[in-house]
Structure formats: structure tokens, C-alpha cells
Write a structure and sequence with these properties.
alpha/beta, 173 residues, NAD, TIR_dom, 5-stranded parallel beta sheet, TMV resistance protein N-like, 16% strand, globular, Toll_tir_struct_dom_sf, 5 strands, Rossmann fold
Length: 173
């Protein structure tokens, strides 16, 4: 399924200067990897700084697609912070979020800030290491949906080329 980033009804162009933002920041992360440590600390710090931040606190049930509310939260955020962790690519929902985030980056100039948490940008960009293993499983599971898998690969390659922060071996985030 392709997700299209909506443009503001008040804008005739895709310029972010006319877009109405509902959130300052959207956090994209793999809950099992970082919810109880790094992402929790980051979210708390953003909120304490007065930054209106969206964090999905609900785990998505298996077999379900990203909710329309989550897609709207991505579209309505000025900045997306993507926390790439070892198992980020094993989640199809994280990958769908990333595709949507990068579409919004192109269409409404959303700022995307990657954080490479215990993973290397080159693993994200080239899908090596744990990312290669995740894609072996995706290619097996989504044999009939090669376009979807290729879209995920392209999104990771693009995001892995963005300037971001590397956090390795950080105690409790």
C-alpha cells in the first residue's frame, strides 16, 4: 500500500512554511529495542523542553496495518526523529512509517533526524548486519509484494545517507 503525504489545504505548493503542524516532533522507533530506555528518555526530555511530541505508545497488533491516526500524526509533524536500532528493520510497521516520513520530507519539507542507536548508518543504508537478516525474512514473507520490499530498501538507503547521530554502547540510553 502506498501512503501519500497530504499537503495543507491552505497551501498551493508543498512549502512547509504554510503547512499547519499538529506536532513539533514525531518519534519513529522499534518499541522492543528502545521503548523502555533511549526513546523513553528522549521523549521525556523533549516534553520537558516544551516540544509537542508524538510517540505511539501502543504496540500494533500482528497482521494490522498502520492506523490512519498514526499516518496523520506523521503528516502533521514538523520534524521526525527516527531511532534506527538493531531490529528496526524487522518491523514492517517501522518500515512503513519510514516510507511515509520520507514522502513527507519530499512533499512538505518535513525535517528528518536519524539516530543510529547501537547500529551503523552503513548497516541501514546497505541493509547489512541485522538489517540483512530482517530483509531475508521480509523477502520470504512478502514474495508477492516485491515492490513493497523494494520501497523499504530504498527508504532505508535514503535515510542511511542523512546526517544524524550515532549512539553506541550507551548505558540505558
Amino acid at each position: 500500500m502506498a501512503y501519500m503525504c497530504s499537503e495543507s489545504p491552505f497551501s498551493s505548493s508543498s512549502s512547509s512554511s504554510r503547512h499547519r503542524w499538529n506536532y513539533d516532533v514525531f518519534l519513529s522507533f522499534r518499541g522492543k529495542d528502545t521503548r523502555k530506555n533511549f526513546t523513553d528518555h528522549l521523549y521525556t526530555a523533549l516534553i520537558q523542553a516544551g516540544i509537542h511530541t508524538f510517540r505511539d505508545d501502543n504496540e500494533l497488533p500482528r497482521g494490522e496495518e498502520i492506523s490512519p491516526q498514526l499516518l496523520k500524526a506523521i503528516e502533521g509533524s514538523r520534524i521526525s526523529i527516527v531511532v534506527f536500532s538493531k531490529h528496526y528493520a524487522s518491523s514492517r510497521w517501522c518500515l512503513d512509517e519510514l516510507v511515509k516520513i520520507l514522502e513527507c520530507r519530499q512533499k512538505i519539507d518535513q525535517v528528518v533526524l536519524p539516530i543510529f542507536y547501537d547500529t551503523e548508518p552503513s548497516d541501514v543504508r546497505k541493509q547489512t548486519g541485522s538489517y540483512a537478516k530482517a530483509f531475508d525474512e521480509h523477502e520470504e514473507r512478502f514474495k508477492e509484494e516485491t515492490e513493497k520490499v523494494n520501497k523499504w530498501r530504498g527508504a532505508l538507503a535514503e535515510a542511511g545517507n542523512l546526517s544524524g547521530w550515532g549512539l553506541n554502547n550507551e548505558a540505558n540510553g
